[in-house]
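Quick one, tokens below. Sequence please?
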């Protein structure tokens, strides 16, 4: 049995991340006709990047996203880009929340922010809520719906949607290899491998051709909103911060780097953040086959994309560990990330050695 107690809810606002709600409220009432009353403010956990709040008015709930405080990497936390991308995508990809207002006036809260409709539903985290009982066939259906959704996104006509100027596009795979190699090297600490063997292999084995389409780049179960009454149904896709014009198979490789299946070793299991271990879930191999079938692609040698996804995840983990190592964050959860970096690079080498 499922129900409304499984709906994802926001928590009290974290200290130091408060919103000037009076400023936001008076600005919003000029943008959204018919908005009345005073909003209660709560905040969503997760998302180490942009801060996400729930504004609960007497008769409607809204979501506000803003950049965090402090120094920002070039191109990161671009609220206007995120807003316009979702606005352009909405007519051709219904699973995007509706955009309501974008504020680029720094006098309101000191940074850009935007407001969108709230998609109310369940977000699948490491484990499904206790009260959610899904049969193997329902779990398989959810898994297929997820891959179908990604295939549907990759099939969006970017010219028709007015998104062809969103990013450079061509040369994407080259830029990704160079970029992640650079980021890994800059964040490297004494206790992790050089990663050179994997980086060199990626350069030497990059595909002869790339396809350019709209990619999400963080497509995971915990960025989906599910129907609490029927959890195999996807109501929305969240977190478009990393979306760009890229290669669809690289996008799938990034998704599969996070995919911990039931028979993976204990190190992988210790990092699982989504319910990909449930009976009925597809294995990574089955996901690849299903995706290729959904998009009418011939059976491809997926090794390059698999290795890249794991290499990129090693880079992400190492960037986080670097901050812990240099005492820029005290979060004890990051203490052993260097072990995970070793593990991911070992998985890269293992995949490379497997004959296509």
């Amino acid at each position: 049995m499922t129900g409304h107690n499984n709906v994802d809810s926001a928590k009290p606002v974290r200290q130091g991340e408060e919103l000037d709600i009076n400023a936001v409220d008076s600005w919003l009432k000029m943008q959204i006709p018919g908005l009345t009353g005073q909003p209660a403010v709560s905040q969503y956990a997760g998302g180490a990047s942009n801060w996400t709040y729930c504004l609960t008015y007497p008769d409607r709930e809204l979501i506000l996203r803003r950049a965090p405080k402090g120094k920002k990497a070039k191109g990161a936390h671009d609220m206007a880009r995120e807003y316009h991308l979702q606005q352009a995508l909405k007519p051709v990809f219904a699973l995007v929340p509706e955009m309501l207002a974008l504020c680029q006036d720094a006098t309101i809260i000191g940074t850009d922010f935007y407001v969108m409709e709230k998609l109310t539903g369940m977000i699948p985290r490491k484990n499904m809520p206790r009260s959610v009982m899904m049969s193997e066939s329902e779990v398989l259906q959810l898994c297929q719906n997820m891959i179908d959704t990604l295939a549907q996104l990759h099939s969006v006509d970017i010219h028709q949607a007015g998104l062809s100027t969103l990013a450079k596009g061509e040369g994407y795979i080259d830029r990704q290899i160079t970029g992640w190699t650079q980021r890994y090297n800059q964040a490297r600490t004494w206790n992790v491998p050089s990663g050179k063997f994997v980086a060199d292999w990626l350069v030497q084995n990059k595909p002869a051709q790339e396809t350019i389409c709209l990619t999400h780049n963080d497509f995971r179960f915990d960025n989906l909103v599910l129907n609490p009454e029927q959890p195999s149904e996807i109501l929305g896709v969240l977190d478009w911060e990393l979306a760009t014009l890229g290669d669809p198979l690289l996008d799938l490789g990034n998704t599969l780097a996070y995919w911990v299946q039931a028979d993976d070793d204990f190190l992988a299991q210790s990092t699982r953040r989504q319910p990909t271990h449930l009976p009925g879930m597809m294995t990574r191999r089955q996901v690849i086959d299903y995706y290729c079938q959904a998009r009418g692609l011939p059976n491809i040698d997926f090794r390059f994309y698999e290795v890249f996804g794991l290499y990129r995840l090693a880079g992400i983990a190492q960037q986080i560990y670097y901050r812990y190592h240099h005492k820029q964050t005290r979060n004890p959860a990051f203490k052993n990330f260097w072990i995970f970096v070793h593990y991911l690079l070992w998985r890269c080498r293992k995949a490379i050695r497997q004959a296509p």
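The radius of gyration is 21 Å. The longest strand covers residues 230-237.
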